[in-house]
User: Which sequence fits this backbone?
């Protein structure tokens, strides 16, 4: 329902933007007209992108991080191409009208027309963010660096908006057009301020989170226990994650996403992290009493989306943390498949075994190479999964792990005929 609603809202706004563009008049050459239209669509996509990253609770609980992240990526690259097209068509269009080379016309526009230089800077910033978001670059970059570079997007938004106000003919073509664009940008920016600033500040002032203990789980895995005031009023559920900011001298500026590794009990929260980067590796040095600033809870990987009485949980690596928390809340019969490369990589295995025993759940720990040959094919292939869970079509399937493993499991459950509405996935590339 939420997904269909977002599609409908975007389609309706595309229609409104097109109608306002036509109403403003078509009194220029074709290149300039196409440039203006792509610029308007780019502005609309930029506002829609702000809505996707606002982390509004209503939207996040229904769509979840995985789907929002996917949309954010596709909208981001679509926005990049729209703005590039806008710049190219406008430059070549006005160059044709002025009988100037395109480069000379671009310099002339930047130095003589209000707002054009700001738009160029905004485009450069968006190109930078788009470059570091490409898969080959993202894999080689620490989360903290990637997140910091993404903050430049907000500067680009302000510059682009000021450009639209300064030279956007459609923006000022009529009172209706002006009111529409102020409404679009006001709603988008207001959503970001509410979801990313006002709500987190209010929750942290209310709950005053702090570390109470740090427990090593293995050589490279640590659990952090956090308490605070009135935690029973914090709307957190098993399977969700927070962006955690530990307020020490060397970490206060870093926000790291970690899932809850235990169901919230109203008294404390627990996260379990593996040392994947410099930020997560330093968690072991945290001291009890350290203040914590948390944004969240985020994610739709919860029992709210359960549609069947029984469930299959599939986890890979440290993706077991939200799955272990879900195991506490799920009702009905549960089967857990935990995929790790080596037995010693199985985080929280003793807790999983205890929970499985107490709840009557079935736990399968699958180890070895992902391309290992078994009588049933790949370890997480359709035959192996159906052998472990013969009634899989009658279960909800929750999958959380590295992107490659998650994609492989999703392909397997599709081949096994599990209805789409029963499959819930979170690729553990951000929230882990």
Assistant:
């Amino acid at each position: 329902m939420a997904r269909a609603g977002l599609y409908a809202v975007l389609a309706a706004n595309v229609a409104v933007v097109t109608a306002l563009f036509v109403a403003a008049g078509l009194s220029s050459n074709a290149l300039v007209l196409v440039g203006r239209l792509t610029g308007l669509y780019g502005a609309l996509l930029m506002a829609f992108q702000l809505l996707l990253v606002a982390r509004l609770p209503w939207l996040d609980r229904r769509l979840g991080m995985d789907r929002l992240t996917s949309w954010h990526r596709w909208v981001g690259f679509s926005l990049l191409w729209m703005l590039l097209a806008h710049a190219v068509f406008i430059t070549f269009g006005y160059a044709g009208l002025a009988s100037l080379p395109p480069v000379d016309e671009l310099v002339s526009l930047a130095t003589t027309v209000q707002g054009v230089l700001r738009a160029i800077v905004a485009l450069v910033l968006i190109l930078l963010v788009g470059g570091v978001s490409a898969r080959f670059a993202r894999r080689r970059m620490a989360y903290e660096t990637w997140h910091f570079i993404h903050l430049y997007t907000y500067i680009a938004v302000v510059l682009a908006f000021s450009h639209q106000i300064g030279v956007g003919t459609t923006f000022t073509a009529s009172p209706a057009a002006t009111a529409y664009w102020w409404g679009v940008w006001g709603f988008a920016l207001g959503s970001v301020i509410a979801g990313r600033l006002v709500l987190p500040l209010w929750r942290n002032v209310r709950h005053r989170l702090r570390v109470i203990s740090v427990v090593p789980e293995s050589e490279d895995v640590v659990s952090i226990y956090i308490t605070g005031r009135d935690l029973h009023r914090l709307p957190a559920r098993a399977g969700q994650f927070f962006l955690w900011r530990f307020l020490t001298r060397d970490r206060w500026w870093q926000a790291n996403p970690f899932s809850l590794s235990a169901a919230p009990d109203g008294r404390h929260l627990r996260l379990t992290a593996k040392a994947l980067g410099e930020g997560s590796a330093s968690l072991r040095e945290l001291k009890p009493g350290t203040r914590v600033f948390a944004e969240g809870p985020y994610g739709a990987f919860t029992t709210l989306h359960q549609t069947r009485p029984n469930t299959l949980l599939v986890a890979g690596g440290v993706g077991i943390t939200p799955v272990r928390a879900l195991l506490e809340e799920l009702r009905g019969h549960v089967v857990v498949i935990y995929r790790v490369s080596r037995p010693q990589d199985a985080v929280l295995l003793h807790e999983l075994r205890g929970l499985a025993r107490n709840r009557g759940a079935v736990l399968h720990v699958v180890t070895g190479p992902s391309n290992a040959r078994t009588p049933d094919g790949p370890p997480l292939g359709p035959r192996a999964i159906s052998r472990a869970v013969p009634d899989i079509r009658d279960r909800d399937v929750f999958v959380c792990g590295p992107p490659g493993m998650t994609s492989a499991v999703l392909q397997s459950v599709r081949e096994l005929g599990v209805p789409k509405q029963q499959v819930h996935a979170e690729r553990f590339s951000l929230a882990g």
